[in-house]
Write a structure and sequence with these properties.
Largest sheet: 7 strands, mixed
Oligomer: single chain
Mean pLDDT: 91
Structural class: alpha/beta
Radius of gyration: 30 Å
Helix content: 55-70%
Low-confidence stretches: 1-20
Number of helices: 26
Strand content: 5-15%
Length: about 725
């Protein structure tokens, strides 16, 4: 009889283990995590902190992988690394590779070729699982800030996970070997090692976030502690829960429910209260991570009032089941849908995308994920699985190479077309000259946006880095350009400002060639040239103290060099219409700018320099942008802005005018972007803007005759 009881008990235990193999609370967390991310991408204003869903995923991954590794160590005193990695490949790569490939081909078919370069590059990075590092590099590259999102941008989190999967088994194996060598308890030593690694990673995360916030978001070391938090549950959670049940048999269920409520509450708080301005990950990431830890550590059981009871419902569990595929599919659909629909996404469009993404996720789960995990290369040795992965990645990279090749051809063809149109009387801004009798200056573009060739950040053959640069920390921000052609220079000139000064280089260089100038340019994206902190851009706080100090340090050095060298002329511009500065007085922006700009210009004019300010072009307001033109190729008139809205006051230009000094002049070319009522996205067959902030290089070149005239008038 006893034997039957033992057998029955063991059978029941096996059945219980099978039932609990997929914990409903963890599936609920997966559903919550993917829901937060998807809703944040579709309706960011309503769920501004939904990006914390990724952090929930990281904790879950740390818990599950560490639990698996610990179990293998305790069963066999070893970790079969080959089998471990091959299982991860079969589990994750089929669906990820499918979505990346389909997205690549769809982008090739639907998106303008100016988008192909970034998409191909990032797809390569994604299949090689280094997308997070590519985005980290772009995040500190000011020229990439306005780059449209790629179809695989969300693969950054998969890259972080794969890098974690690569390192974590080695850490566990190494710590286990140390425990054996030192004759210490394995679990205790593993826990100690994970605590130390996680503490160091958290300290690095906090420091890196507050010194280099943008790359910190994507950097694997800044996220490692989140996986470590999940690992600590796997290492200590079972013992802690068992002790709780023994010591508080009548209360442990209520305590579990309380922990679950608190955990879900912390996640919800971060999702609704965090936003793009939150210094994240940093200390802030502790909130959703702690919430996830509480939910997992509390276990699947709870009282009737526990959120787990509601989240065990079939629809929630279904979302948890398809969470991986839903995460993969939703983002490329958001990126590609406007091109397919021919207009920006509205609420109904977003709802359709949500439903379609869930449907695709279900199909992907049934047809790709599950067969990939259970049947793909079943019984194959790890080497064969690795070889299959390498071949698959090579095929996708080859497709990306084809897209890059086609991008190069399309760009060269459009560039040649552009050159052939330059001399025409109705080309670009020349179409606004009534003497040229151009019938439709605001008709369809004759040349597509040629991508990087239209960027304002470029260099001329006459320019080279200065031998005596302006240096701040690791930045060397000074170039010297000799446009004299070997003749005696007629003037020494400086160009100073941010990227909104840089966008005028295509015109200024032509002025310099005509007048045989030597030009020094010091341009730092995102930095005003005044001696005041920039605290917001386009209404979004810009409170990174490191970035503020960098701007102040650079602008002070540039101003001192100008005073010392006494150039004949200084050309300056800044994104004053879109930025907020703070001198500590709390006065209106125009008053603060007036004092800051006046002080700078007085220093320069006192040294003998004349100052010319480029009045900033009209704001695009996301309507006169290349994205709008791409959706309205035959009718770019749909992308216009009202003049009074787009032509916001430029405080730098207004301050210069207010000085009333003959040696401070404003070059205002607003009438070359707007008529009396509207500002345009296409003029004379040219797209006016390169991105959402900057004028296109070709359009600035078309302004050269008008710029010559305005400059000659201003310097008299």
């Amino acid at each position: 009889m006893t034997g039957h009881v033992v057998l029955r008990t063991r059978a029941e235990m096996r059945r219980t283990e099978a039932v609990n193999a997929t914990r409903k609370d963890i599936q609920a967390l997966r559903a919550l995590a993917v829901g937060l991310v998807v809703l944040n991408h579709l309706w960011p204003a309503q769920l501004p902190g939904g990006y914390v869903g990724v952090d929930v995923f990281f904790v879950i991954s740390g818990y599950l992988i560490s639990k698996h590794l610990l179990g293998e160590l305790e069963r066999s005193n070893r970790i079969n690394l080959g089998q471990f990695y091959s299982r991860r490949i079969r589990r994750l790569l089929p669906a990820a590779t499918l979505v990346a490939t389909v997205s690549l081909l769809a982008a090739w078919a639907l998106l303008p070729f100016s988008r192909w370069l970034a998409i191909a590059q990032e797809t390569i990075a994604s299949v090689l699982y280094v997308e997070n590092w590519v985005l980290a590099a772009k995040s500190v590259d000011y020229s990439a800030h306005n780059e449209a999102a790629s179809t695989v941008q969300h693969y950054w989190s998969l890259s972080v996970e794969e890098q974690f999967y690569l390192i974590w088994p080695l850490l566990f194996l190494g710590l286990s070997l140390v425990a054996i060598r030192l004759r210490r308890r394995r679990r205790a030593l593993l826990a100690l090692g994970v605590v130390l690694v996680s503490a160091l990673a958290l300290a690095f995360c906090v420091w890196f976030t507050y010194t280099n916030r943008s790359p910190a978001y994507f950097a694997t070391p800044a996220r490692a502690w989140e996986f470590g938090a999940g690992a600590l549950i796997a290492l200590g959670g079972p013992h802690a829960m068992a002790a709780l049940r023994l010591r508080l048999p009548d209360y442990h269920l209520a305590l579990s429910g309380t922990a679950q409520c608190l955990g879900y509450g912390l996640i919800a708080y971060s999702a609704f209260c965090f936003n793009e301005q939150t210094f994240f990950p940093g200390f802030a990431a502790v909130v959703p991570v702690a919430g996830t830890v509480l939910v997992i550590a509390a276990g699947p059981n709870g009282p009737l009032w526990s959120p787990n009871q509601i989240l065990a419902a079939r629809p929630v569990q279904f979302l948890g089941d398809v969470s991986y595929s839903l995460y993969l599919w939703h983002w490329p659909m958001i990126v590609l849908a406007p091109a397919l629909l021919g207009h920006s996404l509205g609420t109904r469009d977003k709802a359709v995308i949500l439903v379609a993404a869930i449907a695709l996720a279900y199909l992907s789960k049934k047809l790709i994920e599950d067969p990939g995990r259970t049947n793909l290369l079943r019984g194959a040795k790890p080497a064969r699985v690795f070889a299959a992965m390498a071949v698959t990645a090579a095929v996708v990279c080859a497709l990306c190479g084809g897209l890059l090749l086609n991008f190069g051809k399309a760009q060269a063809a459009e560039a040649a077309k552009l050159e052939s149109l330059i001399g025409e009387p109705c080309h670009g801004a020349r179409s606004l000259d009534a003497r040229n009798n151009c019938s439709d200056p605001f008709g369809a573009a004759k040349v597509a946006n040629v991508g990087p060739n239209e960027a304002p950040w470029f260099s001329a053959p006459e320019c080279h880095p200065s031998a005596d640069p302006v240096v701040y920390e690791d930045l060397q921000v000074l170039a010297e350009c000799d446009f004299t052609g070997g003749a005696q220079p007629e003037a020494n000139v400086w160009l100073v400002g941010d990227s909104h000064a840089e966008q005028w280089k295509a015109g200024l260089y032509e002025l310099a060639r005509l007048h045989k100038w030597k030009v020094k340019e010091s341009l730092l994206g995102g930095c005003p040239f005044v001696d005041v902190k920039r605290v917001a851009v386009a209404g979004a706080p810009a409170t990174d103290p490191h970035a503020q100090q960098r701007c102040l340090g650079w602008s002070a050095q540039v101003s001192n060099r100008i005073v010392k060298e006494k150039p004949d002329m200084v050309f300056a511009s800044s994104f004053g219409a879109g930025e907020t500065i703070d001198d500590g007085t709390g006065r209106p922006q125009m008053d603060q700018y007036k004092d800051a700009v006046t002080q700078r210009f007085r220093d320069w004019t006192a040294a003998g320099s004349r100052v010319f300010v480029f009045r900033d072009p009209p704001l695009t307001l996301h309507r006169t942008s290349p994205d709008c033109v791409a959706l309205n190729q035959q009718q770019p008139i749909n992308c216009v802005n009202a003049r009074e809205e787009a032509l916001a006051p430029d405080p730098v230009a207004e301050s210069a005018k207010g000085m009333g000094k003959p040696n401070v002049r404003v070059l205002d070319l607003s009438d070359q972007f707007c008529d009396s009522r509207r500002c345009y996205a296409v003029i004379g067959g040219l797209q006016v803007y390169f991105d959402n902030d900057h004028a296109a290089r070709s359009y600035i070149r078309s302004l050269v005759p008008v710029l010559f005239q305005r400059f000659n008038e201003a310097r008299q």
